[in-house]
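Summarise this fold before class:
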Amino acid sequence: MDDRGGKFEPSETDPEKLARLLEIELMAKRAAWQQASSRRSTARAIAFLFLFLVIAGAIVGYFYLLSNSPAPRAQQENTPSAAATP
């Protein structure tokens, strides 16, 4: 056993080696951040597409219900009724 308590400590403190190790670690973290950002943007795009489809479906359904009505109200109001004739 070593007297350092089982912790890894580099025997050399070469600044260039430490800088390279830090740069490699930061490159790996940047890649992970970019993947997470890509997943978030994909999820956001899917959410907007779903919202668009729901709104478009509601509009199509609304026009479908209006087109199947028996007669528009304006035509019903303009027709003479039996009570209005003398």
Q: What stands out?
A: The mean pLDDT is 81.
